[in-house]
Amino acid sequence: MNSKVESYLSALERELQNLSTSERAEIVLEIKSHIQESIEHEGTKLEDVLKDLGSPKDVATKYLLDRGISWKPSGSSAGASVAIGIFKWLTIGFISMMAFIALMVFMVFKQFSPFVDVNEEMGKVKLFGGMINVDEKIMENFDGDFDFEISDSAQHRYERNFAIEPGVRIETIDVNFGNGKLEIENHLNNTIRLSCKTRKSDTDLVEPSILQKESIVEIDMLKHSGGKCELYVPPNLFLNVKAKNGRVELEKLVNPMTVKLNNGKISFENAPGAKYKFDIDLGMGKADGFKSSNAADAIEVKLSLDKGRISND
User: Fold this and answer.
1) Span 50-77, pLDDT tens digits
2) Are the C-beta atoms of residues 299 and 282 closer than 8 Å to each other?
3) How far is the CA of 206 from the CAs of 140, 201, 227, in angstroms?
């Protein structure tokens, strides 16, 4: 038999791989008989017969559809089809995953937005969509990690005084403050005075400690959970303040200082006639335009806040 016919029938048999061996043989034999009959009895040229039949794939598709079977590619075509199918589903999976992540991010932003909301007129700062509220007169926090509420009507008060003895050299005051409101002012005598008030009962209070270590006075208020504290310090001593959450007010101080607050508000009020060199470090929120002096005797002030507001009152 002509090699073209053999090649055509072999290709047809490969395209019929979804059928049983007997069915494939029956179809191939039928097509072979049709080709022979057209050439021998009708005098049709082989090229015309094959052209009228169509490609082996077209013939196979017709027979498969007649039997209710979808056409499945063979050989390298099948491998390519499988690869394309896998790639398609991987792509769909990747797009679905990215869409899910985007949806989660959107929901988080919606839940906690705005992250920082500053109301200058009311003297309020809201963090994480209101999860933490810092107010001028009342501070409330609704997250379990923190626990404080401050008001001018707080009933429980206590005071601490630390006198710096004559001849004793003190260079630094270290202040570690937890959650609440801390006001720091200067006074002219050689005493460090601390006055705090809170709504907590006496049994719940963890009072701060004031200790001297060589040239450093350490004031530890980390375990003092909640309250409003006023700290009076001698001028010119270096202040190193670290606070967690709330408000830190620095009122007309002439001390060089570094103040670090995690969340809330830092307010700084210039002393009359004093010159300052400011270093403002704000992660997220709003800061006023502090005016620094380049004078040699300018007092160095560094204010650092992760989230909230830094004001120059």
Assistant:
1) 888 888 888 888 888 877 765 555 554 5
2) no
3) 19, 10, 11
What does the block give as tokens for 54? 């169509």
Determine which helix (DSSP H) or strand (DSSP E) holds 27, and give its type and residue range: helix 21-40
- From the list 195, 313, 205, 213, the residue with the least C-alpha distance to 253 is 313
Q: What is the mean pLDDT of the chain?
A: 80
pTM more than 0.70: no
CA atoms of 3 and 254, how far apart (whole Å): 105
Cα→Cα distances 102→95, 105, 106, 107, Å: 10, 5, 6, 9
140, with CB counted inside 10 A (0-12, 13-18, 19+), is: middle
Phi and psi, residue 56, nearest 5°: -55, -35
Alpha-carbon distance 93 to 99, whole Å?
A: 10
Interval 209-234 mean pLDDT:
86
Q: How far apart are CA 184 and CA 266, in angstroms?
A: 11
Identify any residues that bridge with 291 across adjacent strands, giving them in sequence order: none
Contacts of 104 (CB under 8 A, 6+ apart): none
Residues 6 or more apart from 178 whose CB is under 8 A from it?
148, 221, 222, 223, 224, 225, 226, 243, 244, 245
